Amino acid sequence: MMRGRPIRFGGMLAMLLLAAGCATHRVNPASLSPDALFARADTLYQAKEYGKAIPLLEAFVQQHVTDPRAPQAEFMLGTSYMARKEYLTAATNFQRLVEDFPGSPHDLDARFAICQAYVHLSPKPALDQEYTRAALTHCQSVADNFGGTTQATQAKKYVDQLQDKLAEKLFDTGRFYAKRKAYDSAVVYFRMVVSQYPQTSSAPAALQELAECYKIMGYVEDAEQARQQLLKDYPQSSQAQALRAPAS
Predict the structure, then answer these.
(1) At what angle do helices 130-145 and 107-121 cross, to 10 degrees?
(2) How confident is the model at residue 63 (pLDDT cuts 50, 70, 90)?
(3) I want to staple 78 with a disulfide (CB 3.0 to 4.6 A). Which of 29, 42, 94, 144 is the partner?
(4) Residues 6+ apart with CB under 8 A from 234
(5) Where are the alpha helices (H) located in the chain, listed in sequence order?
């Protein structure tokens, strides 16, 4: 026991000295010139020390909003939060960049970053899809308004993935009601899949379920219409092929 005490005391002394040393390096951002503040923030940012860079970047964009480097600092701030997986805060900063500095060189990258941030926030289909819908809105905007760019190409891929997820959510809800013989409610959700997300893999599956629900409900003409739409619009789908297969 006695032998351990000097080590512990020595460790405490080292910690105190380290804390004192760190304190001497703390600087009030308000006391720095714009050049010095930006230089410090940029050095930490380039070193990927995002946790240390963030308060300096926050101070810069708040204190020097008219500085020509403010859009760059705002973009670095959003990127820092993205690197720390604080996606909602990152999206807020990128949105601020888009709104406060329209036409800046970072505009497209900021809009695409908002799209990416909400894609990261998008949960599994079984959960609430608020962030998925937000991601779809922002990614669709990039895909529609910046065609020909690499960001627009990737945004379109995100759009397809997000639509698949939203369609799956609706389809699963329809199946939930169908299994409980609440066919009227099931029909509503299956029809929403077909009308809102016709390009997804859930659409032919929804038409198949729709036809079955109508059949059970005794709506013969509606059931046949759903089957014909399945054969016409999705001829290569497994559901259409199963429908065309001769009965055994």
Answers:
(1) 150
(2) very high
(3) 94
(4) 203, 204, 207, 240
(5) 4-25, 34-46, 50-63, 70-83, 87-100, 107-121, 130-145, 150-179, 183-196, 202-217, 220-233, 238-244
Determine the Cα–Cα distance for residues 129 and 156; give it in Å rounded to an integer: 19
Q: What residue type is 57 in one-letter code?
A: L
Task: Quickly count helices (H) and strands (E) in the chain.
Answer: 12, 0
Contact 216, 186 (CB under 8 A): no
Angle among Cα 243, 244, 248 to the nearest 5 degrees reads: 85
Place of tokens 């029909």: 187
What is the C-alpha to C-alpha distance for residues 42 and 188, in angstroms, rounded to an integer? 54
Give the whole-number percent of the chain exceeding pLDDT 90.
Answer: 85
pTM: 0.84
What is the rounded end-to-end Cα distance, in angstroms, of the chain?
Answer: 84
Instruction: Name the DSSP letter for residue 29.
Output: G
- Cα–Cα distance for residue pair 110/114, rounded to 1 Å: 6
Amino acid at 93: N
Tokens of 93: 């900063």
- Encode pLDDT of 2-52 as tens digits: 344 444 434 443 343 334 344 335 678 888 999 999 999 999 999 999 999
Alpha helices in 32-69, H assignment, sequence order: 34-46, 50-63
pLDDT at 1 over 90: no
**Closest of 205, 201, 209 to residue 239, by C-alpha:** 205
Amino acid identity, position 60: F
CB neighbour list of residue 113: distance below 8 Å, 6 or more residues apart = 78, 79, 82, 90, 91, 94
